[in-house]
Structures are given as C-alpha cells and as structure tokens.
Amino acid sequence: MxxxxxxxxxxxLVDELLTDEHKLVRDAAREWVKREVTPIxxxxxxxxxxxxxxxxxxxxxxxxxxxxxxEYGGPGLDYMSYGLIMQELERGDSGIRSTxxxxxxxxxxxxxxxxxEAQKEKYLPKLAxxxxxxxxxxxxxxxxxxxxxxxxxxxxxxxxYLLNGAKMWISxxxxxxxxxxxxxxxxxxxxxxxxxRGMEGFSTPETHNxxxxxxxxxxxxxxxxxxxxxxxxxxxxxxxxxxxxxxDSARYGIAWGALGAAMDAYYTALRYALERTQFEKxxxxxxxxxxxxxxxxxxxxxxxxxxxxxxTLRNEGKATAAQISMAKRNNVAxxxxxxxxARQILGAMGITGEYSIMRHMMxxxxxxxxxxxxxxxxxxxxxxxxxxxxxK
Length: 392
Ligand SMILES: Cc1cc2nc3c(=O)[nH]c(=O)nc-3n(C[C@H](O)[C@H](O)[C@H](O)COP(=O)(O)OP(=O)(O)OC[C@H]3O[C@@H](n4cnc5c(N)ncnc54)[C@H](O)[C@@H]3O)c2cc1C
Prior knowledge:
Layout (H helix, E strand, L loop, with lengths): L19 H28 L7 H6 L18 H14 L1 H21 L2 H13 L4 E4 L15 E4 L3 E12 L6 E7 L5 E7 L5 E2 L14 E12 L11 H35 L1 E2 L2 E2 L4 H29 L5 H25 L11 H11 L6 H13 L6
Parallel strand pairs: 1-4
Antiparallel strand pairs: 2-3, 3-7, 4-5, 6-7, 8-9
Helix pairs in contact: 1-3, 3-4, 3-6, 4-5, 4-6, 6-7, 6-8, 6-9, 7-8, 8-9, 8-10
The protein binds flavin-adenine dinucleotide.
C-alpha cells in the first residue's frame, strides 16, 4: 500500500463522547500505525513473519498494558484508551493487535491481578517496554473450547514444581521470554505458573502454514519435566476463573480491534467506489454498491456505540463477562461481514495485497475463533439470559 490516507468514519459523532486524553492516545496510535505498520505489513504478511522490530514502538505508544499503573511501569490509562489503541492497531493488522493484546491482557494483566509483589516488580516494567515479551498458554491439543478439561499438570517436589504437558495455538510463543501457563495441581485445581525461556525441558516450536494472522507468530509450548521455581506460581489465581478473567480483558480489546479492521475496509471500499468508473459512472453511483456501503456504516456505527458503552462500564468496574462476550461476538462477525462486502466492491483488486482488505478478511477468520469461538460466545449469552448452560 503506497500511502495510508485512513480517516475514521464517525457517523454518530462518537468522538464527542471521548475525552481529550482518549483522542490524544488514539491519534498517537493511529499516526504510529500509519508510519510504522502500513508501509511494511503487507510484506511481512506475505512472508508470514512477525515484524519484531515493531516491539519497541509498541511499548512507546503504550500498547503494552495500557491499564497497568505507573508504579509498575505501565502508562496508567483507562479501559477506553486501551480499547482505542487496540482499534488502531487492528486497523493496521490483527496480528500486531494480537501481539499487543496477549502482552497486555494475557501476560501483564494476570501478573498484575494474581501475582506477588515481587513478580509485579520483576516482570511488569520490562513487559511494558517490550524488553520482555510474554505468551499465554491455555489451549491444548485436546482442549480448546473446554479448557477445564486441560491435561497439563504440575506436582509439588518440595523445592520446586515439576510441570508436564503441552499447549497449542499460542500467540507470541516462538519468541516469548516468559509464558503464563495454566495447569492443574495435584488437587486438580487450575493454577498459573510463570515459565521462563531457558528452563530445561521447555520448548516452543513454531506453527507454520497459517493462511490467517500471518504477521503474528504462533507456536506450541511443550513441558517435559520442567522444574519451575516455587516463587513463579501466581499466588492469587485459583481455578478456571483465573484464566477466564484474563480472557475477559483480552476479549474486550478484541471487540474494539475488530472494529478497527472494519473501519479500514469500509473507508477503503468507499474511496474505491467513488474513484472506480464502470459504464461511464463511478461504481458508488449504483444502488447495489450504495446498499453495501450504507449497511457497512450502519453496522460500524452500532459497533462503535457498543464498545463505547462497554468501555464506560469497564471503567466503572461494571462490565460483566457476558456483556464482553456479546461485544466480542458481535463486532468480530460484523467486521468479517464488512470486509467480505468491501472485498467485492474492489472487484479483482480486492484480492491483491495492494489493499488491506483481503489480509483483514483472512485475519478475522482467526479472530472469530480465538478467545472463545463465535458459537461459544452465543452460548455464554444464552446462559446469561436463561440461567441454563448449554455447553454440554
Ligand atoms: C491464530 C490463533 C492464535 C491463538 N492464540 C492463542 C493463545 O495465545 N493462547 C491460547 O491459549 N489459545 C490460543 N488460540 C486457541 C484458541 O483460543 C482456540 O482455537 C479456541 O478456543 C477454539 O478451540 P479449538 O480450536 O480447539 O476448537 P474446538 O473447541 O475444537 O471447537 C471446534 C468447533 O466446535 C464448536 N464447539 C465446541 N464446543 C461446543 C459446544 N459446547 N457447543 C457448540 N459448539 C461447540 C466451536 O464453536 C467450533 O466451531 C489461538 C488460536 C488461533 C487460531
């Protein structure tokens, strides 16, 4: 893509609901994406490689743990700012947003919420700058939607814990310095352990041949008799609620992020439709194309209002897991529908790397599956409104 001219659609003047600080944070992230991400991202997606050199800049714009207080090296921003940063990053590419989401919500968040004071001081400041990178191991080869069935285990050996098991589909795994690993103890309780690269018996093979999220490195975590120091147990995490609380934070960011991809596709399609001429008229003058564009902006506006309200609730400490599920599910599905329609407006050009749309479309196929699938989020809403869990 030669030049990134993106302007965000704001049909209902949602910007008026943001503070000056929110807009400052959002605009800084946007400028960074235009300068650092847009010019190189297509090339990295084609190569299927994570652009590691972006880590430092992500730290500088506050994309790693935006909500982490300043005393632990974080920017100390609110959840609206977190959402806006994720929106801007995913406007650039879902893979870059995924890297920041994992570092923020799935690595820094559990250390902040469930860690000891020593763990917070040791890890959080370095994670905030990107000096240390982390990953989050919950999914296993035999347990995706049902993480409670996990087989990874650790046993107390007196001086240390002995960890065995395997995790799969782990974002950032191939290069992460630390992994937040969820495994069961001898009593069958799910606990969180901080596993460091270099511990004997711990390896992170990369997963290849992905057609989606190609700028994000994905891998396995394999534990063969890994001796984990006792001080690496997250003391305050007990049961599945631990990892699920982290997923709430990440899913919140994804609801915003997917909106970014949708806005990018809409804006690209609108500009293209106004410029491209067929039958001696811009294609934007045909009713069928206007229908597509009108429906896109309607859905984007609804999604913007949804995350703005969710951000307000989260800032007030009132956003429920089910409300977050609804927003994640809605906004990712909305984004996927929008990029598919936008792709058609661009005709053949839509399938090329000249435009971001096809990359967004392929990326969103992962986003609709990870952090709880589209179906599972529907069941969470169903459970919330009926009181009856339909998972089993
Ligand atoms: C690119 C990528 C990155 C990822 N990063 C991470 C990461 O960093 N850390 C991590 O821990 N995991 C990660 N994941 C894993 C992801 O969270 C899982 O893929 C997801 O939870 C779904 O699990 P599964 O793929 O095993 O699908 P399954 O659970 O096998 O589901 C397959 C299908 O069955 C449906 N299904 C399952 N159960 C039910 C039910 N009860 N009722 C109705 N339908 C059901 C699902 O909706 C889905 O359509 C990542 C995945 C991808 C693709």
